[in-house]
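User: quick one, fold this
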Amino acid sequence: MRDRRVLGGIAVALALVLAFWLLFIRTPEGANTPSSGTSERGLAPTFPREESTSTLGSEFVSGSEGSTAESTIAEGTATTAPEPTTFASVIDPVGDRTFSVDPPPPWADLAGAALTRSGAGYELRVEVGGGVAPTTTDANHTMNIASFYDVDGDGVIDYEVWANLASGGWGGSYFDDRTNFAAFLEKSFVTITVEGDEVVIRFPLAHLQRASSFRWSLASEWGRSEVMGTNVAARDDMPDNDQPAGFPG
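Assistant:
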């Protein structure tokens, strides 16, 4: 009887360990290296579908026929006519990030963001908690700040712009989820600077096919490289609960 109890206890313990590994420790494929396809990156939301999608993104849907993401990026930021400057912003409560195994720094929490569109391109200013945005991190930890754009209102993310913090500083990446195209670092044409408590991300109009109206949101994750993309990385999103913000707004 005692042996049966011991064996039963061992079986229960193994089952608990397996369940914990499946829920929290297993790292999805590509989690630490963003790649094309939002399902592999894990942070992308699904927006509610717009009842009418006739106006969202209409200015570029007709103009992008026959083009590719590679050729669009190669066109650079040159414009043939003056572009009006438009703006939108979102705020987020400080302290609402998720649980993480390692105690996260204050700047692992998103506090707000402001997105501007002008003839120079898009400028995304992401405010983080703690009063000072980081310029580097230790070799064991990393942070992703991802922005997502639904330009036609169907609820599916069309484009993504990411900023990744590593020991060498910030690096950018760009994803066209419509064509499964990805570009990293210098080839992404995403530039990142730090100003006070803001991470400033700039990218050309071509990255969103020059869209002037769309829905957007942000998400972040911080932690050790091996847990990025899992439930034990500190995560935050804004607006909360996968609710998109409108642009302009």
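User: anything notable?
Assistant: The mean pLDDT is 79.
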